[in-house]
Each structure stands twice: as C-alpha cells, then as structure tokens.
C-alpha cells in the first residue's frame, strides 16, 4: 500500500530488525536515509537494492515537496535514520506531519529505539518517564531543562553525546541546588539521607565489542558515584542516561489513618 513508512533499524546489532521491516524496505520505491553510506551497509547485509535518497536535517525542507509529490503519485516511500526509530531525535517528524496534513497514510514499522531499550533494562521505574533526548547545547534553556528534570517524579531519560558527558555530569550537580555552597550542603545531607539519585548509563547497547559484554553496557549507581567514576575518565561511544525520578521528599505523605484523624478534627471544630 502506498504511503510513508517509518521503519525502525538497528541501534547496533544488525540482527535487530523485523521481518516486516525487511519486506517493506525491499518492496519500497525509494528509501529516504539520513546517511546513504551508513544505511548502504545495512541494506547490503540484507541484499536490499531499493534506491536510496539522502534525507537529513540539512536538506529536510528542500526534499519535502519532492517526496510529497512522489507520495501523491502513489509511491511507497520508506524513511530510515542512521539508527533506531525515525523522528525520535532524528529527522522524520516534520515529514510525518506534512503527510498527516495531506491525508497521506503514515505507517510505523516499529523496531529498536535506544530510549525504550535503555529504560526496559534499566531497573528504574518504567511506569512513567520523560524522554528529554538531547539537551540544547548551552545557555539558560539547557539549565532550565535540567533543573525541571531534577524536580520531576518520573524517570528522566537523556541522549548524551560522548563529548558532552563530563559537562552533563558537572551540570547535573544543579540537581542538588544552585550555589556551590548550598549544593555542597545539600549533597552531603542527601548522601546522609540516602536520597542521592540513582542513575543508569546505557552505553553501546546491542553492539558487540570485545570489552563490551552485555553487563558492561549498563553502569548503575548514584549521580555522585557517576561523577567520581567518570568525570576524569570519559566513557566512549553512544550513551543514553537515565536518572530516577524524585522519589523521596522531606514532607511525608500522611497515612490514611492520619488523614482520617485530621479530617475528623477539622469537621468537629
Ligand atoms: N532515533 C534513535 C532512536 O530511536 O533511539 C536515536 C538517534 S539519536 C541521533 C542518537 C542517540 O541515541 C545517541 O547519541 C545515544 O544517546 C542514543 N543511542 C543510539 N544508539 C545507542 C546505543 N546503541 N546505546 C546507547 N545509546 C544509544
């Protein structure tokens, strides 16, 4: 069926691709790909010879009209990114929106996605989470976002470029307050109370390196421990960082009995 197919591709291990994804990639008229050389490797591996057309954040707006025309002519257009799910911190959302506006079918072919893979194996709360993705490079918006994250009760998930990891760890001390002095006091108190936030670094998931056995792909500890461990020894490779939500607060939630008692007192006054 004609339409725009958003196909999930591996985030490391080439075997992580669905049968349906392979079938759609084979039968498409064109595959839009972020990096045609990179995608070429995947397609050659599966003997797929569908023509590729580059589609990345720098030519996205130029390409859109041409792609829409092809879709309106009834072609099957597939969009893939370098890794994972298109549109998730990758090009795709804008094209999907245009297609929706033009009543062109948009069909997801689900597959790998770093945020979901990391969360599912993290050991942190998966009921509710916030996917923050990449923080903006610098400035107040970056700081504001991080501070907002620190106050959220949900698990927070970040994509962190390797060269930004130390900066990220430094900045995450914002989670403990603003001024250095206050931060230090809060940090010590928080350690004493045991509410230093737990974090998980998921690195090079699904990739097969000699030194990267599956247990090594997940580092778990507190933010404080991560700083001690990694600040001067920057880990390499692709990283997804998860920080637990604000679970402990100093104000205790009253028990049912307490509530009833307090309500009773209020009513009797
Ligand atoms: N669209 C992709 C997805 O569905 O996850 C994300 C693309 S984004 C440009 C790339 C970022 O995803 C990396 O910087 C890293 O934070 C994360 N990532 C991708 N592959 C990963 C892997 N194998 N292990 C850990 N994180 C990964």
Automatic annotation (TrEMBL):
Query: What are the coiled-coil residue ranges?
Result: none
Q: Which GO terms describe its molecular function?
A: methyltransferase activity
Q: Does the record's keyword annotation contain Transferase?
A: yes
Which superkingdom does the taxonomy of this entry point to?
Eukaryota
Q: Name one GO biological process term.
A: methylation
The Tetrapyrrole methylase domain extends over 4-171
Ordered alphabetically, the record's keywords are: Cytoplasm, Methyltransferase, rRNA processing, S-adenosyl-L-methionine, Transferase
**What is the name listed in the Swiss-Prot or TrEMBL entry for this protein?**
Tetrapyrrole methylase domain-containing protein
């Amino acid at each position: 069926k004609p339409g725009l197919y958003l196909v999930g591709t591996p985030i490391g291990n080439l075997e992580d691709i669905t049968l349906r994804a392979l079938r759609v990639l084979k039968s498409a008229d064109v595959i839009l790909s972020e990096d045609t050389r990179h995608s070429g490797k995947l397609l050659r591996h599966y003997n797929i010879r569908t023509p590729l057309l580059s589609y990345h954040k720098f030519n996205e707006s130029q390409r859109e009209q041409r792609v829409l025309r092809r879709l309106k002519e009834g072609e099957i257009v597939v969009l893939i990114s370098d890794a994972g799910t298109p549109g998730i911190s990758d090009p795709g959302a804008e094209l999907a929106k245009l297609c929706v506006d033009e009543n062109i079918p948009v069909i997801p072919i689900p597959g790998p996605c770093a945020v979901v893979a990391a969360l599912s194996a993290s050991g942190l709360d998966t009921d509710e989470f916030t996917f923050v993705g990449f923080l903006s490079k610098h400035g107040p918006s970056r700081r504001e976002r991080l501070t907002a994250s620190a106050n959220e009760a949900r698990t927070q998930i970040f994509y962190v470029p390797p060269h930004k990891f130390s900066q990220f760890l430094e900045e995450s001390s914002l989670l403990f307050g603003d001024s250095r002095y206050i931060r230090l006091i809060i940090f010590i108190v928080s350690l004493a109370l045991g509410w230093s936030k737990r974090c998980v670094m998921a690195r090079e998931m699904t990739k097969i390196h000699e030194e990267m056995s599956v247990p090594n792909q997940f580092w778990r500890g507190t933010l404080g421990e991560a700083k001690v461990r990694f600040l001067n020894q920057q880990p390499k490779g692709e990283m997804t960082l998860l920080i637990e939500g604000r679970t402990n607060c100093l104000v205790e939630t009253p028990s049912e009995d307490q509530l009833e008692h307090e309500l009773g007192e209020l009513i009797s006054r």
